[in-house]
Specification:
Blueprint: H1 3-19, H2 27-38, H3 45-80, E1 83-84, E2 90-91, H4 94-105, H5 109-127
Antiparallel strand pairs: 1-2
Length: about 130
């Protein structure tokens, strides 16, 4: 099969796949539709294997795109959960701010441990 025919088959099969309902489409139906468009019998073994290859390549590309979109959605969701202060800096954990306040104002060790425990457990509940 020459390269021009291969390109025509590839282009036609991909067009059919892009427009098709993937729940209803079969490889046989794709070959039938492409055969009519190209006026070529794609049921011959030399064409059949190539059509299968084009279909598999298309499906792998679609799967990769879907995985990328899912990863992007997951990243967007993680970005939406982050907190930022008034200056736009990322707040890693509010405990750091309270530690600074306690050290700055010199509260007793007892109160420091109590508040630290309270804040630590609240951060764990929020993350979990």
């Amino acid at each position: 099969m020459d390269s021009e025919t291969r390109e025509k088959i590839k282009k036609t099969v991909r067009e059919i796949l892009e427009e098709a309902d993937m729940d209803e489409m079969t490889e046989y139906k794709i070959r039938q539709l492409a055969s009519r468009k190209l006026d070529l019998n794609l049921s011959d073994s030399k064409y059949k294997a190539y059509v299968r290859h084009v279909v598999n390549s298309f499906l792998e590309e679609q799967k990769a795109k879907q995985e990328e979109e899912e990863e992007a959605d997951a990243t967007d969701n993680n970005d939406n959960q982050k907190e930022f202060d008034d200056e736009g800096d990322l707040i890693v954990c509010r405990v750091c701010f309270f530690l600074w306040v306690f050290f700055y104002f010199g509260f007793s060790v007892y109160w420091f441990c109590f508040v630290l425990f309270f804040l630590f457990t609240s951060c764990l509940r929020r993350e979990g």
